[in-house]
Design a protein that fits this description.
The chain is α+β, with helices and mostly antiparallel strands and about 260 residues long. About 30% of the residues lie in helices and about 30% in strands.
C-alpha cells in the first residue's frame, strides 16, 4: 500500500479519476467485472502498462478486486450499518491493551488517493499521519490517514483543525511521538463534531516497508479498509487501514 506522491493532474491520477467516475455513474456498477485489460486500455485510450499501474492503485484503495485469470471486479458497497458505524480502529480491534505509535506526521501535496477522496486543489495540502496500532504488544493495524486542508477543516468545524495540533515543520521520523497517541479518526471523533463515513473492504499484502516494520514477510496477506469521512457535507478525512493476518477480529460492538 505505498503512498504515491504524484500531483493530482498527472496522467495516472486523471486515469484513476476517470475509472472511479465511470464506477460512480453506473458504467461499471458494484459487482460488475471491468473489461479485459486490452479492451479497457483501448476504450480509455491509454497504454496497458499505465492502465495496469492504476488498476493496482484502485485495488489498494479498495475500489476493485483483481484476481489472476479472473480479471477485475468492482467492489460492492458495504451494507449498513456494518462499518458505516463510525468507530475508530482502536475500538474496532476489540478488547485488549491498545497502544498507538505515530510513525510519520507530514504536510503533503495531493496524492492519487488523498487528492481524489478529499477533493484537494493542487495548491492545498493534506496532513498525513501514519500510525501503528498495537494490541497486547503486537502490531494489529497500519493506519494511513489524510486530513483535508486546514482551511477546509476550519470551515467544516474549527475543532477538527485544532485536533491535528500545530502543523509539522518537518516530517516525523519512525518512532517519534511514542507517548499518548491516537489515530486521526479517533482525534476527530473526540471533538464531538457530527461525522459521516463510507468505506470499502478489500484484500492486499503487507508490502516491504510495513513488513520490515513488524518483521513479517512482504507477501503477508492483509485486509484493507478504506474510509472517507465527511463533516458539514464535505470530506475531511481519507484513510487506509491495513490489518495483517493474525490481527484480532474486528468488533463492531463498542467497548464499554
Amino acid at each position: 500500500m505505498p503512498r504515491q506522491g504524484d500531483r493530482r493532474h498527472s496522467p495516472r491520477v486523471e486515469l484513476y479519476e476517470r475509472i472511479v467516475a465511470a464506477i460512480d455513474d453506473g458504467t461499471f456498477p458494484p459487482g460488475a467485472k471491468l473489461p479485459p485489460e486490452p479492451e479497457l486500455a483501448a476504450l480509455l485510450g491509454v497504454s496497458r502498462p499505465g492502465l495496469r499501474e492504476v488498476l493496482i492503485l484502485l485495488q489498494e484503495d479498495g475500489v476493485i478486486t483483481r484476481r489472476q485469470g479472473a480479471g477485475s471486479t468492482v467492489n460492492q458497497l458495504p451494507p449498513a450499518p456494518g462499518l458505516e458505524r463510525l468507530l475508530p480502529v482502536e475500538t474496532l480491534l476489540g478488547p485488549g491493551t491498545v497502544r498507538c505509535h505515530r510513525r510519520a506526521v507530514e504536510l503533503e501535496e495531493p496524492t492519487d488517493f488523498s487528492g481524489y477522496h478529499l477533493r484537494l486543489a493542487p495548491a492545498e495540502r493534506a496532513c498525513f499521519w501514519e500510525t501503528v496500532v498495537e494490541v497486547d504488544g503486537a502490531a494489529a493495524c497500519f493506519a494511513h490517514e489524510w486530513a483535508a486542508d486546514r482551511s477546509a477543516l476550519r470551515a467544516a468545524d474549527p475543532a477538527l483543525a485544532a485536533a491535528l495540533g500545530d502543523p509539522p515543520k518537518a516530517p516525523a521520523r519512525p518512532g517519534d511521538g511514542d507517548g499518548p497517541a491516537t489515530t486521526m479518526l479517533a482525534a476527530f471523533l473526540d471533538t464531538g463534531c457530527a461525522l459521516t463515513a463510507r468505506g470499502t473492504l478489500g484484500a492486499t499484502v503487507l508490502g516491504k516497508e510495513r513488513g520490515e516494520a513488524i518483521s513479517r514477510p512482504p507477501e503477508t496477506p492483509a485486509m484493507l479498509l478504506t474510509q472517507t469521512v465527511s463533516a458539514a457535507g464535505r470530506p475531511v478525512l481519507a484513510a487506509k487501514y491495513l490489518f495483517p493476518s493474525g490481527a484480532p477480529l474486528l468488533s463492531l460492538t463498542p467497548r464499554r
